[in-house]
Amino acid sequence: MKLYDAAWAPSPRRVRIYLAEKGIEIERVPVDLRRDEQLSDAYLAINPRGAVPALELDDGEVITESAAICRYFEAANPAPPLFGATPIDIARIESWTRRIESDGYVAAAYAFRNSLPVFKDRGVTGKWPPIPQIPELATRGAVMWKAFAEGLDEHLGHGEWIAGDAYSFADITALVTVDFAAKAGLDTHGCGHIGRWHKAAAARPSAGA
Amino acid sequence: MKLYDAAWAPSPRRVRIYLAEKGIEIERVPVDLRRDEQLSDAYLAINPRGAVPALELDDGEVITESAAICRYFEAANPAPPLFGATPIDIARIESWTRRIESDGYVAAAYAFRNSLPVFKDRGVTGKWPPIPQIPELATRGAVMWKAFAEGLDEHLGHGEWIAGDAYSFADITALVTVDFAAKAGLDTHGCGHIGRWHKAAAARPSAGA
């Protein structure tokens, strides 16, 4: 089994943090995004969608999508449960994970992909026909990010972690998202509860995975 | 337990189809999107995000996000497994569900929300500060939809259902997405495998839920 990985990108980092929290070690194959190795013929033969991460199983089947890769490991290694164990914990973790992705991660990606010259005609991650950048999307991303951060900050005023009493996949998703957003120029200044939570999440050994 | 629901919108329909496949019946409260009832003070007191569906539990807790609502029921009612039972089935279903959402559903939403005058300054679903429409996003949605539909069509040439041998949450997600895209003017003409699959998925009694 091999994980196709990339050093600083948010989605592979989500999988690495997840695996570190579970204590799972697997072979990792670096893909150099700065050289667009994810769009090379060799990598497209592994993942035609041209994105990392991708998990190649021993029989050759390739699993894409960071959440799907994590759920694959979760099904085989249920403890500790990072996607929840009871119906209500499962629902809370999935709900927050989805909200962080659709409101926060998407906002960061809008800002990141639609302003930097390096992504000209590559407005969406992965292998696509030419997709022009849309500068107004960076503006939309900033509006969404501010509203998202305020909502998350208010929520974190009520508990230590994001979904229920324990650290979960929602926290992993949020950590990756907040750090990615910072790279896109979107901050959480003034959000004291996020600051407290971020310090605790970033202090876990998994955060450096 | 009550499900806040809306007649034609794709996300509530995803939950209704899921519940019909599982044979679960619960109280449903209609929210009239044509009158913007989802943005009324009364509904925002239930779901401050201003979106449907929302599941109100008997203790008053509210679960948002259609996938989270379905996973709540799946945890309590595992058979038949619509999110998979083995690690590989779980991974395949999650991977395809995510791909359908990020490449197909997002494309349809781009086209739908950024062209109709009724969504002026409401470019994203739910309760947000004013978010101007971006006409170029409708164009981006069309480019993404074509590539997504071609990829799904090719994939459906290899099997009856989308993820593995059985009908799953990925098929529910795709049915809702393809029908929503059609409302946004994005079709699957020329995609014969999708046509065959759509006919089979739409013929299930759950499709009319």
Write the layout of secondary structure elements.
The structure is a homodimer of 209-residue chains.
Chain A: E1 2-5, H1 10-22, E2 27-30, H2 41-44, E3 54-56, E4 62-64, H3 66-76, H4 87-113, H5 135-156, H6 169-183, H7 192-203
Parallel strand pairs in A: 1-2
Antiparallel strand pairs in A: 1-3, 3-4
Helix pairs in contact in A: 1-3, 1-6, 4-5, 4-6, 5-7
What does this structure look like?
Two copies of one chain form a homodimer. Chain A is of the alpha+beta class. Chain A folds into two domains: 2-76, Glutaredoxin, CATH 3.40.30; 87-208, Glutathione S-transferase Yfyf (Class Pi), Chain A, domain 2 (Up-down Bundle). The first copy, chain A, is built from seven helices and four strands; from the N terminus they run βαβαββααααα. Chain A has a four-stranded mixed sheet, covered by helices on one side. In chain A, a hairpin with a 5-residue loop joins strand 3 (54-56) and strand 4. The first copy, chain A, is globular, with a radius of gyration of 17 Å. Chain A starts with a strand and ends in a 6-residue tail after the last helix. The relative contact order of chain A is 0.14. Chain A binds chain B through residues 49, 57, 61, 63-65, 67-69, 71-73, 75-76, 84, 86-88, 90-92, 94-95, 98-99, 123-124, 128-129, 131-132, 134, 136-137, 140, 143-144, 146-147, 151, and chain B through 48-49, 57, 61, 63-65, 67-69, 71-73, 75-76, 84, 86-88, 90-92, 94-95, 98-99, 123-124, 128-129, 131-132, 134, 136-137, 140, 143-144, 146-147.
